[in-house]
Every structure is written in C-alpha cells, then in structure tokens.
Design brief:
Helix content is about 85%, strand content about 0%. The chain is mostly helical. It has one domain. Helix 2 crosses helix 5 and helix 4 packs antiparallel against helix 5. The longest helix is centred in the first third of the chain and has 53 residues.
C-alpha cells in the first residue's frame, strides 16, 4: 500500500502552511503583548513622575505650614532650598504633562488643568497663611486624585 507522491506532497505542503501560519500568529501575539507591556511601563513611569512632582510641589507650603503651627522659623538657606524645589516642581509638572500627554489618560490631563486653575484662583486669599493653606490643599487634593486616576488607568487594585 503506497501513498501517491502527489498526495504526500499535498499533505506536506498543507502541514508546512499550517505550521508557518501558527508560528506567524504566535509571533504576532507575542509582539502585541510585548508592545502593550512596554506601553503600560511607560504610562506607569509618566504617572510616577507626575506623582513625585506633585509631592515635591506641596513641600514648600507643607514645610512653611509646619513651621507656622510649631511656632518655628525656617532658616534662610532652607527657604531658598524650598523655593528652588517649588519652582522646579511647578516647571516639572507642566513638562511631565507635555511629554506624557499621549501616555496619561484624558481624565488625568483634566485633573492637571483643574489643578492649574485652582492654584490661580486666589480671590479669597488675603494672608500668607491663607496662601500656604490654599497651595497645600489644592496640591494635596490633586495628588490624591492623580493617584486614584493612575490606579484606575493602569488597572491597579
């Protein structure tokens, strides 16, 4: 009982085609997963930078408020350091948003725009303490909402 040569060739060709298609499909799925994981990592880094920057942004008002409540003076060197950190953080927030605007969710970008508007809303601020309290409150609220949005967007429980 011999198998005709053309039938054997057809079976080999069909097996080769199935194997080739299976290998191609496996590579495509692996590449898709790899790209998705890399995108997730880049998003996580963007959120991490934004959260770190917001944390640093509230340091100025936090340190000044703590000194006020504890009835302490902040040294001129410490004031200069805090001012530098504050200015760098403000610039970094907008830099992170500009660079990460394609990585951050639309909701995160809305939260940052609301943060910027809230910081600028100083109509009810009359004293230095009011300014510090306003700055700390607005920044802390934004930080908490950005953390929640990052968890939602990155699907972290």
């Amino acid at each position: 009982m011999s198998i005709p040569l053309d039938s054997l060739a057809a079976q080999m060709l069909s097996s080769l085609l199935v194997a080739t298609f299976g290998a191609w499909l496996a590579v495509q799925l692996a590449l898709r997963r790899f790209r998705a994981e890399k995108l997730w990592e880049k998003r996580a880094v963007a959120y991490e930078r934004l959260i770190e920057t917001l944390h640093n942004a509230k340091k100025y008002s936090s340190e000044h408020l703590n000194a006020h409540y504890e009835d302490n003076e902040i040294s001129d060197d410490k004031k200069a350091e805090l001012t530098k950190i504050s200015r760098e953080s403000e610039a970094e927030v907008w830099k992170v948003v500009d660079i990460g605007s394609f990585l951050l969710s639309e909701e995160a970008l809305k939260l940052i725009r609301a943060y910027r508007a809230a910081l600028a809303d100083t109509k009810d601020i009359h004293t230095w303490h009011d300014h510090l309290d306003h700055d700390y409150g607005v920044t802390d609220k934004c930080l908490k909402t950005i953390i929640a949005e990052a968890k939602r967007h990155l699907a972290i429980k």
